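lol ok so funny story. i was supposed to be doing the assay writeup but got distracted and ended up predicting the structure for this chain instead. priorities right. anyway since i did it might as well share w the group, maybe its usefull for someone
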Amino acid sequence: MNGLPTFAALDSYAVLEQERRGASIQVDESYFRGQLKAIDAIDSVDLTKRRKIVTQSYDLYDNIQIDIDSFTKENIQTASTRFRQILQQMPEAQYLKHSFPETCFVVPEWLRTQGRVKYGARIYFFRADSAPDPDEIIQRNIEAIMDDKQGDFAQYQGRLHGYPDCCIDYFSSYNRQQDAAPEVEAVEPLSDAINDNVLQDASNSSASIKEFFEGIFELPDIYAFFAREFYPEPDCNQARKQGISIYDVLCDGCPETLIKDFFRINAGWSYQMAHNISSPTKASKPSPGSFGREHLLFYLPFLSVRSLPEYFDEG
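and the output, tada:
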């Protein structure tokens, strides 16, 4: 666990403690760039080996080219098999699998957007007793792409990640023709505690995360943001209860300051991503460091972050 990026380590710790079924990392350019940027930002820890793994993996991933002659289920399945074989050889996939004590695997991930099919990858973390077969995930993803029913796959993924059923059902049944996107409504309860002026500053990576989220723990809804890339149903008591349970479990093994920053980062990611969805001209995902120094540091290995003065002294 100590070798996992900090955000993934905390997500996965909740899995090991049976608070969630699973967790995952979307492997993309932002993931690799975030780690390299974080390594460059810290000189108190020797991360030479980690840099090498990330750099090699980034180069390999960036040069993957999947060609499909025609858009058929058979061709997508063949491409998925070939793609997964490449992903399994990626040093980062092997490193994460070695760092997690139970079941960890990488699968290709297909997405249909604006009439085009794109491909990426996702690395999952499960307890051995609740892990699905990777082929099941791949097949469910392919079926959703072929039938243009990505909502069905999103529901399936939500349950893989152990999100509350009410939140999964809320987003799957939401009428997106309404004025506000469901993601925007999900983060609205936190808006009074989020400093938009600071958030819009392009040079945020040297600021403290506390400057972005003043008094956010005075709002009970902060506990609903217990996972990275998760949107709770607005005013969802079940999500809050699950979040409080996860918060307490994480605090049993980690400094509370670290766990509070984890929840702040989760909320900040969801908040900024929700508003990016409503504004197509903005970046699709928040860039590493968007919410201050702590946001960037959470791309570092968990053990490295635990050794930093802001977290180590409390332990």
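The chain has 15 helices and three strands. The CA atoms of residues 65 and 83 lie 9 Å apart.
back to the writeup now i swear
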